[in-house]
Design a protein that fits this description.
The chain has helices at 18-21, 62-65, 119-127, 129-137, 150-155, 163-205, 212-216, 228-231, 273-279, 329-336, 339-345, 359-364, 372-414, 429-458; strands at 14-17, 22-24, 38-42, 58-61, 70-72, 77-80, 91-93, 102-104, 108-113, 157-160, 224-227, 232-237, 250-253, 258-259, 262-263, 270-271, 290-293, 303-305, 312-314, 318-323, 366-369. The protein is α+β, with helices and mostly antiparallel strands. It has 3 domains: 14-160, DNA methylase specificity domains (Adenine-n6-DNA-methyltransferase TaqI, Chain A, domain 2); 162-215 and 373-427, Helix Hairpins, CATH 1.10.287; 224-369, DNA methylase specificity domains (Adenine-n6-DNA-methyltransferase TaqI, Chain A, domain 2, Alpha-Beta Complex), CATH 3.90.220. It has a 4-stranded antiparallel β-sheet with strand order 2-9-6-7. Strands 4-3-8-5 form a 4-stranded mixed β-sheet. β14 and β15 (262-263) form a beta hairpin. α6 (163-205) packs antiparallel against α13.
């Protein structure tokens, strides 16, 4: 990827390899630092996905990090090389560091811009979605452990403008992205307000207030409560083993491809017939069963009603409930999705490494119960209201997607010389590139001389 546009680059620009404009994974002289020196440590989790932000919350002595970790300095560009961190945009410019040096995950590539290269320009280039897509296609290694090779990063071509223009471009990108971010922030607030309204609506629904008028003409319709153990004819846990997935076969439903009330078949995972038969020994899921995620910090409580006839089995972290005649599956699932139910299970979640709910605890949890007729009326009211909220949410999501399109358009113009005006009086990028290459060669020659002198002294 040498250009983001079919139009020719401005005359003052050149095409250069990343290794021409930055030192890739530069070394440090560890003998210059004391073992007790406090340095900041940056794990992969400290880099925001797509935000360019770095959390400098961890400090370690130099002796603990000098081996086996990646060193970097202020102003370096960190580039996550492993999947899925790279695809998620975990790149950032290193901010000011305690004692001028930091260390981090071995899964970072480090780019140290040469004099005349804007770190911000380089960051925006390597963190762009288009660059990440190209890098993804050039990853090497096994599935789940694929990485962007150093050679790919070093040899990749980028459009290079003069130094001052780099800074003007970076500043313009920052200004435009700031406006986009304000819009996204408003959309995020609107989405959170929708969630708050949904929960308030469900709270009223399961307190009987949404059907209060309906009950006036039906005095014998009363509310009570029932334990999940009594409400369900069968409660089945998944096998506590990771299935061997296949390219095709029977659906294996786990937390990776379900959301509340939704199965994302485009992300489906499959198992072969032998594995399938093993995983349905306890019970084979069928239409009308309720699937519930009981493990995993982000997905616990996610639930849906099986509304398809394809044969499937449970993957990890899942459980299945086959309800009795007193409670409708949709009614039950809407209650599970309410904050009322979450208040019951959140104090019972155990396991810091792998948060989970125990089946025995789930059995004892309660569900408010009304007549089947009122349950049907309540489902009708909820779905009528939620269809409106879903439409609003879809409109918000469309606007969020537009913001990404706008970002991509800004970057496309930036890296094709169309975002800011060129200054004919500025030094050409070709001159800058020649100077950097000459300085690099001189530096290399100096290192060779020093190495020869060191060998002579040792002799």
């Amino acid at each position: 990827m040498s250009n983001h546009s079919s139009k020719p680059l401005p005359a003052s620009w050149v095409i250069a390899q990343i290794a021409d404009v930055a030192s890739v994974n530069p070394k440090i002289d560890r003998s210059l630092f004391d073992d007790g020196l406090e340095v900041q440590f940056v794990p992969m989790t400290a880099i925001g996905a797509g935000t360019g932000k770095v959390a400098l919350n961890e400090v370690r002595p130099f002796s603990d990090v000098q081996k086996g970790f990646t060193p970097f300095l202020e102003g370096d560009v960190l580039f996550a090389k492993i999947t899925p961190c790279m695809e998620n945009g975990k790149m950032a410019i290193v901010p000011k560091l305690r004692n001028d040096i930091g260390f981090g995950s071995t899964e970072f590539h480090v780019l140290r811009p040469y004099d005349g290269i804007s770190a911000l320009y380089l960051y925006y280039y390597v963190s762009s979605e288009r660059f990440r897509r190209d890098a993804e296609h050039n990853m090497t290694g096994a599935v789940g452990q694929r990485r962007v090779p150093t050679t790919y990063l070093s040899q990749h071509l980028l459009p290079l403008p003069p130094t001052n223009e780099q800074h003007r471009i970076a500043a313009k990108i920052e200004a435009l992205f700031s406006e986009v971010d304000k819009g996204v922030e408003s959309l995020t607030t609107a989405r959170e307000q929708l969630r708050t309204y949904r929960q308030a609506f469900l709270k009223r629904a399961f307190e009987g207030r949404m059907t209060a008028t309906w009950r006036k003409d039906r005095p014998r319709h009363e509310w009570t409560s029932i334990s999940i153990g009594d409400a369900a004819k069968h409660i089945v846990d998944c096998l506590h083993s990771t299935p061997t997935f296949a390219a095709s076969g029977k659906y294996c439903i786990d937390s990776t491809w379900i959301e509340d009330n939704k199965v994302m078949f485009e992300q489906a995972r499959f198992v072969d017939e032998v594995t399938y038969q093993d995983r349905i020994k306890r019970m084979k899921p069928k239409r009308g069963d309720v699937l519930l995620v009981r493990e995993g910090s982000k997905k616990i409580g996610t639930a849906l009603v099986v509304n398809f006839d394809d044969e499937c089995c449970l993957g990890q972290r899942m459980m299945m409930l086959r309800l009795g005649e007193r409670i409708l599956p949709k009614y039950f699932v809407y209650y599970i999705q309410s904050d009322n139910f979450k208040k019951q299970y959140k104090p019972l979640i155990g396991g810091s490494a792998s948060p989970h709910l125990n089946i025995s605890d789930i059995r004892r949890m309660t569900v408010p119960l009304c007549s089947l007729e009122e349950q049907r009326e309540l489902i009708r009211i909820i779905e009528s209201q939620f269809s409106v909220l879903d439409a609003i949410d879809s409109a918000i999501e469309a606007e969020v997607q537009k913001s990404q399109v706008l970002r991509d358009a800004v970057l496309k113009r930036a890296f094709s010389g169309q975002l800011v005006v060129q200054d004919p009086n500025e030094e050409s990028a070709s001159v800058l590139l020649q100077r950097m290459r000459a300085e690099k060669e001189d530096s290399g020659s100096d290192r060779k001389k020093n190495n020869k002198n060191s060998k002579k002294e040792a002799a």
